[in-house]
Design a protein that fits this description.
Helix content: 25-40%
Order of helices and strands: EHEHEHEHEHEHEEEHEEEEEHHEHEHEH
Radius of gyration: 28 Å
Structural class: alpha/beta
Number of helices: 12
Length: about 425
């Protein structure tokens, strides 16, 4: 939430300050850094990194081992205001154990609306003041970030179930990504991207991966993406199991409808045999998009280019797309009989996976304006006894790159 730089050559004092900050739940320990002199803070840190808060010891040496003095601390403070090369922290607080010097240097801090507080080991006053200031900065930053997010109105949110290889291939696309966490209570790492079309139009993207596979995780992340970024489209990409004999490894599966394969009722027959009675609730692809995908399938647009762009091992034959029904199930399947059981409820079934129904359901149930949901997953196995991970990377690649072409060239953005 806050990036904090402590500039202090007194190890015990710096440790006390650091331990106080560690107790604040919103603070990430990795976001706190310490410099022991002005030289390291000025030359190394403040030229390379940006900080929300600088905690500056008034009596500080220019270089570690030199005699510390208040004038060095004040000179450093003035330098921050004048040197355009340095990334000035948003807030600066001076902390000194030289209580008798507070009055002499208080005005140097007040001039820029900064604060100088006295540090007395074993007392609570300095802790209360510092803690209150940090709490205020956290609250202010949260409000600013929420305002920034509300203005973004993203075009596309991309969701994957796996960081490797699914999200990894999304992040390899020809897009400049910026990693960002918006709240300490939201542990999702969002990847913000921008695509500039030849006509000058910009497409704003956000991508994220679920912490685990499954419809529950994909639904939760979808709602977070929708709530934070208000995208026009939410696209699921990655890998899936295909139906053997109908699809080939790496082929892209576009679900014209998807259902929860575990929805239904389990009963016991008079023979004692358990029987599952399915009760599928289908979510369907936008009709205009379906027609566009059918046209693209017929023309084979983008497919050869994508296949030829993969430099590692790839299957023989052409890359293709398939548009049809898919089932989302709660577990990885490696059993032919289970595949045939699911297929018995959809004769034209093209694939089985674990997340897309959660994405489509979230898109249909969120507040207006609702995003259009799309699932573009590629075949990595057939969910049978021969299932392995050999084609996962290729499938993640074809899915991500076909999605990229669709976003750039085909969506109404």
């Amino acid at each position: 939430m806050l990036r904090i730089l402590i500039v202090d050559d007194n190890a015990e004092k710096a440790a006390s300050i650091k331990n106080l900050i560690y107790k604040i739940p919103e603070i990430n320990r990795a976001d706190i850094e310490i410099a022991v002199d002005v030289k390291s803070a000025s030359v190394t840190l403040l030229q390379e990194k940006s900080y929300d808060l600088l905690l500056l010891d008034l009596f500080i040496p220019f270089e570690f081992g030199d005699n510390p003095s208040a004038q060095i601390g004040i000179d450093f403070l003035n330098e921050l205001e004048l040197d355009k090369e340095k990334k000035v922290p948003y807030h600066i607080i001076g902390i000194t154990a030289h209580v008798d010097q507070i009055d002499n240097y208080q005005d140097d801090f007040k001039r820029s609306l900064w604060h100088l507080i006295e540090y007395v080991e074993g007392t609570e006053d300095w802790k209360d003041k510092l803690n209150n200031k940090i709490e205020y900065l956290i609250k202010s930053k949260k409000q600013i970030e929420k305002q920034e997010i509300s203005k973004l109105n993203f075009d596309v949110a991309i969701i994957t179930a796996l960081r490797e290889p699914e999200l990894a291939h999304v992040l390899k696309l020809d897009i400049e990504w910026l990693d960002k966490r918006y709240d300490n209570d939201d542990m999702t790492l969002y990847h913000i991207g921008l695509i500039k079309r030849p006509n000058g139009k910009e497409i704003k993207l956000v991508a994220a991966a679920t912490p685990q596979m499954g419809m529950c995780a994909s639904s939760v992340l979808s709602m977070k993406l929708i709530h934070k970024f208000r995208p026009k489209y939410i696209v699921m990409c990655g890998i899936a199991a295909g139906i053997k004999g109908q699809v080939e490894m790496g082929d892209i599966l576009i679900n014209e409808e998807v259902w929860d394969g575990a929805s239904g009722k389990i009963t016991t027959e008079s023979s004692g045999e358990h029987l599952f009675l399915p009760d599928p609730r289908h979510k369907v692809l936008d009709e205009k998009l379906k027609e566009r995908f059918l046209d693209l399938k017929m023309s084979r647009k983008y497919l050869d280019q994508i296949r030829n762009g993969y430099s590692a091992n790839k299957p023989n034959g052409n890359l293709d797309t398939h548009i049809g029904p898919m089932a989302s199930v709660p577990a990885v399947i490696q059993n032919n009989e289970q595949v045939e059981e699911i297929r018995s409820h959809a004769r034209k079934l093209i694939g089985i996976e674990m997340e897309s129904y959660g994405v489509f359901y979230s898109a249909s149930q969120c507040s207006d304006p609702k995003p259009v949901a799309i699932s573009l997953k590629s075949v990595c196995d057939y969910a049978n006894e021969e299932k392995n991970d050999f084609w996962q990377d290729y499938a993640a690649y074809t899915s991500a790159n076909y999605m990229f072409q669709i976003i750039v060239n085909e969506l109404g953005l």
